[in-house]
Structure formats: structure tokens, C-alpha cells
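Students often ask why inverse folding is considered easier than folding. One informal answer: many sequences map to the same fold, so there is more than one right answer. In these notes we will look at a single instance of the problem. The structure comes first.
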């Protein structure tokens, strides 16, 4: 036990200390004051709403900020938002926390709703824990991060938060743009952008990039390509329409965990890769057609129709036997909406309809070795799973905004959702080998339920109030419920003797209050929340999927920016939160959860400090400090990662004539740290954080002709 790091006794004053330290840091440190002079609008609510009138927490990362960040991984951009903690795995892999612990397992991705241009990128029941690599965050026009459950009109998966990646609109793109980037470990990237107009009311645009990363660890790296194209215009009656296409491709050589206490501190170990055979190949494509009637149209109608497809093959190097998984989904749907005004009331209503088909195949090519005789014997060669699930969704929703006085807005919203899965098992049911041969020691590990149907009905209400108590400042409060039906893998990818998983939807109830505003030189947003999550799905000590978990979430978040001088912006973003178990249970892997323990991989403190200096109109320099507090690496709270602090330096220089140069140094102090620390099966294991890395970019953009933008 000499490798255990027991946690220090909790400090009751920690929230106050964090708030005080963040407030004090404003005298020496940014977030995004560059956008403070423009009204921030939240679009993920289906109808754009000014941030000052939104009864919830939202952060918008605008295009200039994203260009300066130049993210090579989604975590580099999204972790700038308070309450956001994305852990990078190998290559483009990621685990997400938004106002939550870092969640893992089959249903982890179901706690977060990922949108592209306000449309979910995956159907209900078929998310992927690494699905953020299916959106082009590198060339986004903006990214919205909404924290907390839903926004009333959104349904399944918006439990802990929403990420909405807004693609660059044609009117804001250059006539022609090209960018070249290079960096550490054979990193190379080519970016393209172009746009044009056809007549007075139609514009088309395209952005694309191709990236090759040699990988900083042995036998790792990836190649990636992404494309977004759109055409938008207006009808003769004043309506607006848009057609958009998105496509992504990823070929990745994957590096696994490094094992042993503090292995991430050893230069040789952290660069090693015990799984050089591991890989992940994936592609996705989405098409969206959108129409909005003119603002003056009574009962204004809006509709989006979409089609999506994705495929992924990856070697499950983290499992004994290393089975190969192949999965995919094809789906489509429509989002219908109507809106209008009746006196002091603004109303909206809609109906979402979706059809999807998902498939999963798991196949093991070689006999299992590396485990105990029992563990090897219950993992046979051949097919483990082969099933198809057809899903149907219908969800009506409505929202009313009432303004009883000039500065008040009261909001009431509700969404009902019905989801049905039709499961078709294409193998023998039960936990035998594929040919029906029984495994010793009570049967094979992999268990396949017989064909079955499952349906889930959920109702999610939301109440909110905002008060603009002074020009440019507002106070808000909200009460909301979020939910997610079980993922298909939680229902139909069973283990051991489990024949049926009788699971309900996870639900979370949340209360939140906040304050936001700005004066031009100082901008802030403060939020406090309390959430209770029930029916948490987990794998228990017998290896069964059950919905008997419960967790509690309490926290304070702060974002602020101050410009003491026209050339200097200082800012801070921080979170103090406790995410705790509210039940007792033995779980898979030999751990025991105790009521009141911290949820594993849930740092109580997260903070970013940034200083941005603009000595000339053409020059921007930013120094960023990112601090991750200690967290427990196991559910029993016996092993603790100490946290880390990183420095990042970024600079941009407009050279004139449409040319721009940028430079970045990540992990400037070359600190040894872990992107992810985990204690499992009696051992420490880590995804080591990248050593100091540098990147250089050169970009050219020829602006659109005069009058080309709207």
C-alpha cells in the first residue's frame, strides 16, 4: 500500500477560497473580453436568445478565440469553458466532463448532447464516447457550451451539458483561404476555405482540413480529414433556407495506458506503447436541409431534415483477448417548429421525429492469453456479439416566455419523448461461444439477449426566470430535469449470466442560480447549482447492468474578464464542485462504492487564468495557466492523483496582404502530468500528458468581394 496517496481531510472553506482566489486573480489575469462588446447569443435553444435573457449557464467560444487556440484536440478549446474538463486519450480519443465527473463506460457519452448547427450528431441510443472527433471544431465559426440539463426544448442526453459546434457560414468565409501548419512529432496540417455568391440571395461556402500527426508516443499517431460545405439563401417571400454537408475520416494508431505508480513521470515509460497493434478507423457523414419562414409570418414555421451515417472499427486493446469491434449507425429525422407572439407572451412549439438503425459486431481472432486460466477460458475465439437495433423517436415540446415587466422574463418549457428499440440478435442467445459450445466456470463472459423490444417514455419540464436589474446585467434562476434512455450497448451487450437488462432512463433534477453582466471593460458570469441524478446505470459486482446508482452534484462556476488597458485583457475561469455517490454498492472490477464518497475522476477544483496582450492591432499574445486539482482515481477513494498545472503560450501576427502567422507552445514548462489517471484492478494506469510541443501556422485569406457578405 505504499503507493497510495490518501486524500487530505476536506476543507469546508474551499469554495470560498476558490471564489476569493479567482476574484483576486482578476487583478493579474482572461477569458474572452474580445467578444464582450458584442451581445452573446445562445442558439442551441432552437431559437436564438440573448445570453442576458437565458436562464442558464452558457459559454460561447467565438471564431477569433478558436483561431488563436488552434486546437489540435477538442480538449484544448472546450476546457476554456468553466465546468468543462475533457481528458485526452490517445490521438483524438476523449472522455468528457461538463458539470460532472469524467464519465466512462458504455453510457458515458449519453450524458452529453453534441450538436452541429443545433442538430444532434448521433441518434438516441447510439452515441460514442469519442464522438467529438466527428465534428469540425478546428474550423468552427463558434462553439457553444451549455452546462446543466437540457434547455427545455432538447431531450435525451442533455443531462450534464450540451456542446453545439456551429459551422462557419458562407457569408463570413474568405473568397479563398489556405493555411499550413507544422509542429512537434511530425505534425502537419493543410486547411482550405472558400466562399462565393450566386445572385443577390444565395451564398455557398466550404472549409476542409487534412491533418497528419506522427504521435509523440511509440507506434501512435493519426491522419484525419474533415469537410463542411453549405449553401444558403432566401426565398422571394423572405424566408431563409440552408443545405449543409459534413464529413469526417480518422485513421488512428492507438497508444494504450502506461502502468505502474507515477509511470507518467518516467520519460521512457510515458513515451512507450504497450499496445502497438491497437488502432481506430472511423468515418461519418451528415446532411442537413433547413427552412425558416419570414419573421413576419404568423405562426412562423421552421423545419430541419437531416440524414446521418457513421462507421467505426477499433481493436479493444484494453480487454483480454483484444476483440475487434465494428459498429455503425444510419439515421434520419425532422425537427419541426412553430413560433409566435401573443401580447407579452412569446411561444414556441415543435415536434422531433427520428428513425435510426445501429449495428454492432464484436469478433475475437486469437485465443485469449495474458489473464488467469479462468479469465482466458471464458473469452472464446470467434463472434461475441452481432446485433442490429432499429430505433424510433417522437418528441413534442413547447415553451412560453412571459415578460410581466420590462426587465423580467419568465420561461416555462416541457418536452415529452418516446423512444423505442427493436433488438435483433443475429447469433445464439445466451453466454455460449458462437457455435453453441459452453464455456467452463459458469459460462462465457459475453452474454447475448434474445430478440426483444424496449420502450422509454420521459417528460422533462423546465422553469426559468431572468431579471435585468441594471443595463447589461441580469440575475437568473432555473429548475430543470434532464434524462437519457439507456444506450443500446447497455441493454444488449451483456455479460456473464445476465439474460435481460431491465433498465430505466437516467434522470437528473437541477436547481441553478446565477449572475452575469458586463461594463465593456469588465465582464463576468457566476453560477451555483445543485443536482441529483437517479437511476444511474452501472455494472455491478456480478457483472450485471443495473440502474441502481445515485449521485449528487454541487458546484460554483465563475468566468470573468477585465481589460485594465486597451492592450491588455486579464481573465479567469474556475469551478469548485463536489460530485458524490449517494448509494452503497459493490461494482465491477472489485471496487466498493460508499455513500458520500467522491465520484472517481472528479477534481473539486478547476481553474484557468489567461493574460492576453495586444501591443498593436496586428499582434496578440496569450499566456494561459491551466490548473487541475487532485482527484480520486478509484471509487473507493483510496488512491489519489495529485493534479497538475500547465502553461500554454500562443501568439498571432497579422502580416498584411491577407497573411497571418501564429505560433503556440503547449506545456511550456515541460511538466510531467497525466491526461488521465486511473486505479483499476489493483494497479495504477495513466494516459500520460504530452511533453512540451510547438506549432507554427501560416495562413492566407483573400477577402470576399465588396458586398459579398450579409
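Output (designed amino acids):
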Amino acid at each position: 500500500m505504499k503507493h497510495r496517496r490518501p486524500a487530505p481531510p476536506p476543507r469546508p472553506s474551499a469554495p470560498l477560497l476558490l471564489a476569493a482566489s479567482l476574484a483576486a486573480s482578476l487583478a493579474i489575469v482572461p477569458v474572452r473580453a474580445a467578444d464582450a462588446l458584442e451581445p452573446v447569443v445562445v442558439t442551441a435553444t432552437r431559437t436564438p436568445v440573448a445570453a442576458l435573457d437565458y436562464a442558464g449557464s452558457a459559454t460561447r467560444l467565438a471564431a477569433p478565440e478558436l483561431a488563436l487556440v488552434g486546437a489540435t484536440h477538442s480538449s484544448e478549446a472546450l476546457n476554456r469553458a468553466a465546468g468543462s474538463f475533457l481528458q485526452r486519450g490517445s490521438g483524438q480519443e476523449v472522455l468528457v466532463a461538463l458539470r460532472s465527473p469524467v464519465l466512462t463506460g458504455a453510457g458515458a457519452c449519453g450524458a452529453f448532447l453534441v450538436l452541429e448547427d443545433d442538430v444532434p450528431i448521433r441518434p438516441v441510443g447510439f452515441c460514442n464516447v469519442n464522438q467529438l472527433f466527428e465534428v469540425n471544431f478546428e474550423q468552427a465559426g463558434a462553439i457553444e457550451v451549455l452546462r446543466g440539463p437540457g434547455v427545455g426544448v432538447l431531450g435525451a442526453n442533455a443531462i450534464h451539458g450540451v456542446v453545439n459546434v456551429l459551422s462557419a457560414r458562407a457569408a463570413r468565409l474568405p473568397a479563398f483561404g489556405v493555411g499550413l501548419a507544422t509542429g512537434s512529432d511530425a505534425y502537419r496540417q493543410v486547411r482550405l476555405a472558400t466562399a462565393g455568391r450566386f445572385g443577390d440571395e444565395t451564398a455557398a461556402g466550404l472549409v476542409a482540413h487534412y491533418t497528419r500527426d506522427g504521435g509523440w508516443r511509440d507506434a501512435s499517431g493519426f491522419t484525419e480529414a474533415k469537410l463542411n460545405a453549405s449553401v444558403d439563401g432566401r426565398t422571394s417571400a423572405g424566408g431563409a433556407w440552408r443545405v449543409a454537408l459534413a464529413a469526417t475520416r480518422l485513421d488512428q494508431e492507438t497508444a494504450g495506458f502506461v502502468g505502474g505508480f507515477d509511470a507518467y513521470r518516467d520519460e521512457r515509460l510515458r513515451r512507450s506503447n504497450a499496445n502497438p497493434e491497437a488502432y481506430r478507423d472511423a468515418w461519418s457523414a451528415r446532411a442537413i436541409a433547413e427552412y425558416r419562414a419570414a419573421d413576419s409570418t404568423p405562426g412562423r414555421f421552421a423545419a430541419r431534415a437531416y440524414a446521418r451515417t457513421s462507421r467505426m472499427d477499433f481493436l479493444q486493446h484494453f480487454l483480454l483477448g483484444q476483440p475487434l469491434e465494428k459498429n455503425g449507425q444510419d439515421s434520419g429525422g425532422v425537427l419541426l417548429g412553430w413560433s409566435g407572439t401573443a401580447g407579452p407572451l412569446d411561444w414556441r412549439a415543435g415536434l422531433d421525429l427520428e428513425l435510426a438503425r445501429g449495428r454492432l459486431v464484436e469478433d475475437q481472432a486469437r485465443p485469449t492469453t495474458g489473464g488467469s486460466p479462468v479469465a482466458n477460458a471464458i473469452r472464446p475465439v470467434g463472434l461475441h456479439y452481432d446485433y442490429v437495433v432499429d430505433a424510433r423517436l417522437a418528441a413534442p415540446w413547447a415553451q412560453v416566455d412571459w415578460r410581466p415587466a420590462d426587465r423580467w422574463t419568465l420561461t416555462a418549457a416541457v418536452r415529452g419523448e418516446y423512444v423505442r428499440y427493436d433488438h435483433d440478435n443475429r447469433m445464439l442467445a445466451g453466454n455460449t461461444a458462437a457455435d453453441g459450445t459452453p464455456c467452463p466456470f459458469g459460462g462465457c463472459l459475453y452474454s447475448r439477449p434474445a430478440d426483444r423490444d424496449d420502450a422509454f417514455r420521459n417528460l422533462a419540464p423546465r422553469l426559468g426566470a431572468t431579471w435585468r436589474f441594471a443595463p447589461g446585467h441580469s440575475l437568473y434562476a432555473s429548475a430543470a430535469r434532464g434524462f437519457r434512455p439507456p444506450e443500446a450497448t447497455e441493454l444488449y451487450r451483456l455479460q456473464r449470466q445476465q439474460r435481460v437488462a431491465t433498465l430505466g432512463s437516467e434522470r437528473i433534477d437541477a436547481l441553478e442560480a446565477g449572475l452575469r453582466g458586463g461594463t465593456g471593460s469588465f465582464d463576468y458570469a457566476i453560477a451555483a447549482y445543485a443536482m441529483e441524478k437517479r437511476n444511474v446505470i452501472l455494472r455491478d459486482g456480478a457483472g450485471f447492468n443495473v440502474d441502481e446508482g445515485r449521485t449528487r452534484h454541487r458546484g460554483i462556476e465563475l468566468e470573468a474578464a477585465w481589460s485594465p488597458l486597451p492592450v491588455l485583457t486579464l481573465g479567469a475561469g474556475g469551478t469548485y464542485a463536489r460530485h458524490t455517490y449517494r448509494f452503497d454498492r459493490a461494482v465491477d472490477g472489485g471496487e466498493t462504492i460508499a455513500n458520500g464518497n467522491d465520484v472517481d475522476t472528479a477534481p473539486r477544483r478547476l481553474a484557468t487564468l489567461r493574460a492576453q496582450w495586444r501591443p498593436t492591432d496586428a499582434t496578440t499574445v496569450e499566456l494561459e495557466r491551466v490548473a487541475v486539482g487532485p482527484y480520486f482515481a478509484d471509487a473507493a477513494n483510496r488512491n489519489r492523483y495529485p493534479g497538475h498545472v500547465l502553461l500554454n503560450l500562443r501568439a498571432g501576427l497579422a502580416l498584411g496582404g491577407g497573411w497571418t502567422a501564429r505560433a503556440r507552445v503547449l506545456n511550456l514548462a515541460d511538466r510531467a502530468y497525466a491526461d488521465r489517471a486511473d486505479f483499476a484492478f489493483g494497479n495504477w494506469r495513466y494516459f500520460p500528458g504530452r511533453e512540451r510541443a510547438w506549432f507554427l501556422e501560416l495562413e492566407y485569406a483573400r477577402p470576399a468581394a465588396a458586398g459579398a457578405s450579409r
